[in-house]
Amino acid sequence: MAKTYRIAPSILSANFARLGQEITDVITSGTDIVHFDVMDNHYVPNLTIGPLICEAIRPVTDAIIDVHLMVMPVDRIIPDFAKAGANIITFHPEASNHIDRSLSLVRELGCKSGLVFNPATPLDYLDHVMDKIDMVLLMSVNPGFGGQKFIPETLNKLRLARARIDAYMQKSGREVWLEVDGGVNAANIAEIACAGADTFVAGSAVFGAGKDSDPNRYNSIVGALRTELAKV
Ligand code: DX5
Ligand code: ZN
User: Fold this and answer.
1) Is 37 a catalytic residue?
2) Which domains does the chain have, with CATH numbers?
3) Which of 201, 200, 190, 174 is CA-nearest to residue 230?
4) Is 124 annotated as catalytic?
5) pLDDT digit string (tens) for 159-208?
6) Predicted TM-score (pTM) of this structure
7) Radius of gyration of the chain from Cα atoms?
């Protein structure tokens, strides 16, 4: 059976002056998930969007909204995103004092939960919380900015994460997604899929491809990503 691959455009690289239309157009072009990057100029050196924007885009799309929290601490803001219509909320283990508690909080509020691993963060954080995790997100760049270069060591880490997740899924019968975030493009997505990712964040590669107001402007880049994935 063909594997299910999900493409998650990061709206960090979208045109914020026309965000609603950007989301409609990018999802219509054949993507699955809205990746929503939240940065606080504290955990990471950049400042982006918060629950107000999540709430504003919720009526625009039925697509899954995947909130990637790059903020510290996380517990205060999690309920705001759940209320604003997030479907998935992930956070970095270093940004929570009580990881198990934060994961439980996300689930209690009706969202899927996940942990995000920076390039140098070990996967050991998964050891005792797998039952509370729906998605593992591996950063393939250091978080904070779009448009950075994919770090090749992520491929080895993906293989390790894939093995852990497969073993867990076999044992538990529960599905856990493996997402990769940073520097993904049509030239490397097949290799990344081979290493084990099933969900692909792509910001600059997707939104950088659409310069005008043609509603089909993302078809060709998303088509190229799908073509590459079909080769895996
Ligand atoms: C980086 C963000 C990413 C980023 C991806 O901190 O988490 O989601 O926007 O952008 P590209 O695909 O341009 O690397
Ligand atoms: Zn992200």
Assistant:
1) yes
2) 6-230 (3.20.20.70)
3) 190
4) no
5) 999 999 999 999 999 999 999 999 999 999 999 999 999 999 999 999 99
6) 0.98
7) 16
Q: Is 189 helix (H, G, I), strand (E, B) or coil?
A: helix
Amino acid at 209: A
DSSP 86: -
Residue whose tokens read 């992520």 = 154
Distance CA 21, CA 26 (A): 8
Give me the catalytic one of 37, 40, 134, 198. Answer: 37
37 forms beta bridges with: 68
Q: How many CB atoms lie within 10 A of CB 175?
A: 12
36 residue type, one letter? F
- Looking at this protein, which amino acid is placed at residue 69? L
Ligand 2 centre to CA of 140 (Å) is 10
What does the alpha-carbon distance between residue 111 and residue 228 come to, in Å, rounded to a whole number? 31
Ligand 1 mutation target, pool 10, 88, 118, most atoms within 8 A of CB: 10
